[in-house]
From TrEMBL:
UniProt key word Repeat: no
Record protein name field: MFS transporter
Membrane topology: Multi-pass membrane protein
Assigned keywords, A-Z: Membrane, Nitrate assimilation, Transmembrane, Transmembrane helix, Transport
Predominant cellular place of this UniProt entry's protein: membrane
């Protein structure tokens, strides 16, 4: 029976192209909340007069839930497919953004004080739930595509979805001028609601999960899905997926690499606007544009090509080179005093992080083919925790060194890059050969 006949017989919907498109769209809209914190942090701080450490925690709040929720929700995909986890995270994010919008309407600016910091932080945590959609979209995309196209598909997914902070970073400063802080939050909240509705209407799970939901036996569902081109299949429950992937040593190496590449990326999308404003004296619109064009959008688009490079040269080798680039960029930023050199350092870091992100997730289905969702949860969740952990550390540098700390703090990335190069080297030379002797040297 040909594919078209099978699709009609079982009333299946979707294809790899639409699966990738909707997963990418879902990740894009889920990222809406994180873009609000960097450019508007200065506005909120002018009213609340926070110490740099508290400011660092506030701008990182969405990244805490956005990272930790990736672990269970990424693994949940192996049980139910991606659509239900996506919608659950959207619902949590909508509640958080609704709370933040309400606070701003009721209290900003005159009644917004440090006493309200815990409540703002709490709603920030909820609004960051949408960021966790990343680890849902990775296995959702992986289930749609064969192994030899994983690098391209995941690179396109992560790269295009990651453009959200950059695009929002460009738009938000202008929205702040035209709509005000409260109006801007309300606009982003409306965007999230509309985006969730579009995803609900058009997203489909991979064929295997559609068949299971229709009551088809697992073996039959697997056989039909294979005939339709699906190669990856879940191995068990959510807990089993996490256990299986946790037992693979390479999973933890990838967690460490992703802590630097994507966790570091998240941290800088919120920190760079503050850096440009406080260290170079730029105004908020200029700072937002520099973060978006010089870092976020660059890192996102180059990630797409990074997937192709990883397919060609291997994820481990690509990771080593890309972290060397991050190392160079961090050193430039740590010692730069002029605007031009600082911008160069930002661009170098953006390029390195973008390629590194693609390289890391090229390796997830390669090392853990029996539980890509579980591995995606660990790597995406604990790795992205860097987005929460790093900004407060950067804030400590500012509290200790004053204005010079905005530059000196990039030494943190120098250290992380060195560690990541070493780990990628171990994966390349020892782990892949000893645990997976059949894996290509690339």
């Amino acid at each position: 029976m040909n594919k078209e006949s099978l699709m009609k017989k079982y009333n299946l919907k979707g294809n790899p192209k639409t699966g990738l498109t909707m997963a990418t769209f879902g990740f894009f809209i889920g990222f809406a909340a994180v873009s609000l914190y960097g450019p508007v942090a200065t506005n909120i701080n002018k009213v609340m007069n926070m110490p740099a450490l508290m400011l660092g925690f506030l701008v990182a709040a969405p990244n805490l839930t956005g990272s930790l929720l990736r672990i269970p929700f990424g693994a949940w995909v192996d049980k139910v497919g991606g659509k239900k986890p996506f919608l659950t995270l959207f619902a949590l994010s909508i509640i958080g953004m609704a709370g933040l919008t309400s606070i701003l309407y009721l209290y900003y600016p005159d009644q917004l004080t440090l006493k309200m910091y815990p409540l703002i932080f709490f709603f920030g945590l909820l609004s960051g739930s949408g960021i966790a959609t990343f680890s849902v979209g990775v296995p959702q995309t992986s289930y749609w595509f064969p192994q030899n196209k994983q690098g391209f598909a995941l690179g396109a997914y992560g790269g295009l979805g990651n453009t959200a902070p950059g695009i929002f970073g460009i738009l938000l400063p202008f929205a702040l001028v035209g709509l005000g802080l409260t109006g801007s939050y309300a606009t982003w909240f409306l965007f999230l609601v509309i985006g969730t509705s579009i995803y609900t209407a058009f997203a489909q799970d991979a064929y295997y999960f559609q068949l299971i939901k229709k009551g088809v036996e697992k073996e039959e569902a697997k056989q039909v899905s294979k005939e339709l081109g699906q190669e990856l299949f879940p191995s068990g429950t959510v807990v089993q997926a996490l256990k299986i992937s946790a037992k693979v040593p390479g999973t933890w190496g990838l967690v460490a690499l992703y802590f630097t590449s994507f966790g570091g990326f998240l941290a800088l999308t919120t920190w760079f606007p503050t850096y440009w404003i406080q260290y170079h004296g730029l105004e908020v619109r200029q700072a937002g544009l520099l973060m978006a064009l010089g870092f976020s959008i660059l890192a996102s688009f180059i990630r797409v090509y990074g997937g192709h490079i990883s397919d060609k040269f291997g994820g481990e080798r690509t990771a080593m080179v890309s972290f060397m680039i991050v190392l160079v960029g961090s050193v430039v930023l740590a010692f730069a005093k002029s605007f031009g050199i600082s911008l160069l350092g930002e661009i170098i870091m953006g390029a390195g992080m973008g390629v590194a992100n693609a390289a890391v997730f090229k390796l997830v289905p390669k090392y853990v083919p029996s539980a890509p969702g579980g591995a995606s949860g660990w790597v995406g969740g604990l790795g992205a925790f860097g987005g929460f952990a790093v900004p407060p550390i950067l804030g400590i540098f500012v509290d200790f060194y004053g204005q010079a700390g905005y530059a000196k703090g990039f030494i943190v990335y120098t250290v992380l890059a060195v560690i990541s190069i070493f780990i990628a080297f171990i994966l390349k030379t020892k782990y892949a050969k000893s645990v997976y002797p059949g894996i290509s040297k690339n």
